[in-house]
Design a protein that fits this description.
The protein has twelve helices and eight strands. The protein is an alpha/beta fold and 276 residues long. Helix 6 links the parallel strand 4 and strand 5. The protein binds 3-methyl-2-oxobutanoic acid. InterPro entries: Pantoate_hydroxy_MeTrfase, Pyrv/PenolPyrv_kinase-like_dom, Pyrv_kinase-like_dom_sf.
Length: 276
């Protein structure tokens, strides 16, 4: 393990020390390298690559092979951050035994440090089995995009008493199953705060308010590359605009013949050309 690699023990210790965790997604080596350099604690190779990279509307069709392909590129480029990969829908739903063999394959082939599994109580046995096999697991409760049909769409969860109780039970079950951290997605901040107080593992919020132990966002939203504006996020750059400007300038110079110039050209002895 590289010397500066963040460990799951350090991640857990940050909760005890009251230090915030900063988590961001990345899906390829270029961005993984930059995100790692910027000092985030954890990089998630999220199945949100369905939307950001593959142009799909939902995360459900993403395959294990696609996750392995992207996670391998990320681990090559991130020597410092803990790298976690999403187990896609269908890879862990057939019970603990098959889930373990898929998680083992992902772990061996990608070099990630942990896997993420969406699902609360219904995934507790699966999470326990994967952890027992020696693979750290990050949980994910609240809004779980893989279960969008069951949840009635991508909307804030747990606003009513019974729903809030079930999400608290989910969070406890995932922590008791041995997860080292827990994503809380799209929850009222009061519920996320209560879960953060009641579970012993770090909570990482996305649309779950400021009282979580850490925050996670989708890289493309942070950089202004996703073209969407969401209540729970902020945009720290406008790379879409910068990219269009740069490409348009390149195109203009190609069309007018000013690129490439002599400075961007390779040279050889003219006398050789004359002999040809
Ligand atoms: O797939 C993903 O990017 C995620 C985060 C948004 C939590 O699950």
């Amino acid at each position: 393990m590289p010397e500066n690699k963040i460990t799951i023990q350090q991640v857990r210790a940050k909760k005890e020390a009251g230090e915030k965790l900063c988590v961001l997604t990345a899906y390829d080596c270029t961005f993984a390298q930059l995100v790692d350099r910027a000092g985030v604690d954890i990089i998630l190779v999220g199945d949100s690559l369905a939307n950001t990279v593959l142009g799909l509307e939902s995360t459900v069709p993403v395959t294990l092979e696609q996750m392995i392909h992207h996670a391998t590129a990320v681990t090559r480029a991130a020597p410092n951050a803990l790298v976690v990969v999403d187990m896609p829908f269908g890879s862990v739903q057939e019970g603990p035994q098959l889930a373990v063999s898929r998680a083992v394959r992902v772990f061996k082939e990608t070099g990630v440090d942990a896997v993420k599994i969406e699902g609360g109580r219904r995934m507790a046995k699966v999470i326990a089995a994967v952890v027992e096999a020696g693979i750290p697991v990050m949980g994910h409760v609240g809004l779980m995009p893989q279960y969008r049909s069951m949840l009635g769409g991508l909307k804030v969860q747990g606003k009513e008493l019974e729903a809030a109780r079930l999400i608290l039970d989910d969070a406890r079950a995932v922590a008791e199953a041995g997860s080292f951290a827990l994503v809380l997605e799209a929850l009222p901040r009061q519920l996320a705060r209560l879960i953060t107080e009641r579970v012993p593992i770090p909570t990482i919020g996305i649309g779950a308010g400021p009282e979580c132990d850490g925050q996670i966002l989708v890289l493309h939203d942070v950089l202004g590359l996703s073209g969407r504006s969401l209540k729970f996020t902020r945009q720290w750059a406008d790379l879409a605009e910068e990219t269009v400007k740069a490409v348009a300038a390149y195109r203009k110079e190609v069309l007018e013949g000013s690129f490439p110039g002599d400075k961007e050209s390779f040279h050889m002895d003219e006398s050789i050309i004359e002999k040809l």
